[in-house]
Amino acid sequence: MSDYQHKKIFIQGPAGVLQSLYHPGRPDRPAVVVCHPHPVYGGTMRNKVVYWMARAFEDAGCSVLRFNFRGVEQSEGEWDEGRGEADDARAALDWMEEMHPESRLWLAGFSFGCYAGLQAARTDDRVAHMFAVAPAVNLWSFSFMVGENRPVTVISGTSDEIVPFERVEGSVKGKSNIHFHPIEGAGHFFPQHMNQMADFLLTDVRAELS
Known about the structure:
alpha/beta; globular; 8-stranded mixed sheet
């Protein structure tokens, strides 16, 4: 992947400022917010999977914002069981929409980041497409997604050691708006399958990025 410069910024969140990395892309491409995994277990915006997700969108010309949830590194506030973190994601979407009012708005999350991020996107009609990588459906209830009709790309490794593949597979069954991409043999952090993960991330939106 090509080398991009990222602007180190702080955006205003509901519990204080949120430490962020921002990459401006092309004005005709979507603006994407990327949410990181569980803060209590060391998740940050510098997580390797989050980094690769962000770079996949950046390579496609998108503007990308990844940020640290409240209480992580230099972000203010403290862990709030996913409730406040969803509000943080809403603040990130607001910031991106303000920066790119003419762009489509997308949201992507990894593991816990899916739970917080999709909660924010579910109540935000501006978000046109959602991306969930290894969504932690065994640890958090995603019942708030019932009735959602916008497109959702879901990626899951068949050898995920944290989120059982069968749980993810079952959660997407029968939902026509969800595009499901299993990766054979991949673990939760995709150590040997990062390229496949990044490729599948864009599979459903290539027409919009050409």
